[in-house]
Amino acid sequence: MKSRLEKLKGTCVGIAGCGGLGSNCAIALARAGVGHLVIADFDIVAAENLDRQYYFLNQVGEKKVLALRENIRKAAPEIKVDAHELRLGPDEIVRIFKDCQVIVEAFDRADQKLMLIETVSERFPDKFIVAGSGLAGYGRNNALRTRRLGSLFICGDETSEVSEELPPLAPRVGIVAGMQANQVLEIVLDDLRPGSGDDVWDE
Amino acid sequence: MKITLNNSEVSMSGETFSVRQMLELMKFTFPMIVVKVNGHLVSKEEYDRVFVGDGDSVEAIHLISGG
User: Fold this and answer.
1) Which residues of B touch A131 (CB under 8 A)?
2) Is residue A181 assigned to a domain?
3) pLDDT exceeds cutoff 50 at A197
4) A-proximal residues of B, 21-60, CB under 8 Å
5) Which of A108, A152, A199 sits opposite B65 (nearest CB)?
6) Cα(A184)–Cα(A34) distance, integer angstroms
7) Which residue ranges make up each domain of chain B?
8) Mapping DSSP to helix (H, G, I), strand (E, B) and coil, where does residue B42 land?
9) B2-62 in CATH: which number?
10) Does B9 reach chain A within 8 Å, measured CB to CB?
11) What is the band of A199 on the pLDDT scale with cuts at 50, 70, 90?
């Protein structure tokens, strides 16, 4: 039987979006020992991202995927990182994530989240998706949870939408990103299988 | 009719509903929702074409912006 570290080293995880969820989730997975990450984003690092995203002041103005690859390698020098600077649509998702066992949905907009879930479910029914939904504001630790629908896991409170009154803040964004990374580890290390027979509704 | 919605049994007065009608009746109010009927993902374009009837199992989760 493979050891935990061998299993993680042989795992490829896709990260769709390198903002608050994606950057923090990628770092957690790299530190935990995942051997190969495929990261994608079209954006550049802005000063206002530093309040919750895994970037630093000297990286403002750099492409997020390149800045994140640099930060991942500082934390985990052995890791392989494929960085794709592009806007992800269905075709790009199919092309760049085809070798990943699990895809982390880390987009900002809800319509993009749904696009990724529909694309992966249709084109890669055997791949797991770990999505984030509802993380704005502060407090309410116990409202954050993970629910499973077959090959899809959704982490978050499913209600807190980002707005001017309810901004995304580092602790809750980091918790949900950590929940996503934690779920990836469970999928890989416990050999979870897609399929709707074992959905979890634990409320 | 009785359906299972997110693992709870729900009684609805009527024989059959489209996915769109069912979501409205069950007060799913945000615009983006992941919907599965009997384990199959129903895309947004299919909301008026896919119907839910007695004994069906429906799962629906809101997708909320922020990431």
Assistant:
1) 63
2) yes
3) no
4) 30-34, 36, 39, 41, 43-44, 59
5) A108
6) 10
7) 2-62
8) strand
9) 3.10.20.30
10) no
11) low
Q: What is the number of structural domains in chain A?
A: 1
Strand, coil or helix: A176: helix
- The length of chain A in residues reads 203
Q: With respect to residue A203, please indicate whether it lies within any of the assigned structural domains.
A: no
Is residue B34 pLDDT above 70, yes or no?
yes
C-beta atoms of B32 and A113 within 8 A = yes
Q: What are phi and psi of B3, to 5 degrees?
A: -125, 165
Is the Cβ pair B34, A19 closer than 8 Å?
A: no
Two structure tokens written together for A69: 């690859």
Task: Check if B7 contacts A (Cβ < 8 Å).
Answer: yes
The answer to whether the beta carbons of residues A141 and B48 sit under 8 Å apart is no
Q: Measuring CA to CA, which residue among A15, A180, A41 is closest to residue A100?
A: A15
Residues of A near B (Cβ–Cβ under 8 Å) read 17, 19-22, 106-111, 113-114, 117-118, 121-122, 131-136, 147, 149-150, 152, 154, 156, 158-162, 168, 196, 199, 201
Residue A111 lies in a domain: yes
Residue A163 CA to residue A168 CA, distance in Å, equals 8
- B61: Cα separation from own chain's centroid: 9
Domain of residue A139, residue span? 4-198
Cβ separation A158–B6 shorter than 8 A: no
Average pLDDT over residues A180-203: 80
Q: Give the nearest chain A residue to B7 (CA atoms).
A: A201
**Token pair for A42:** 């079209």
Tell me the one-letter amino acid at A123: R
Beta-sheet pairing, A152-156 with A128-132:
parallel
The enclosing domain of A90 has a CATH number of: 3.40.50.720
Helix (H) / strand (E) containing A13 = strand A12-16
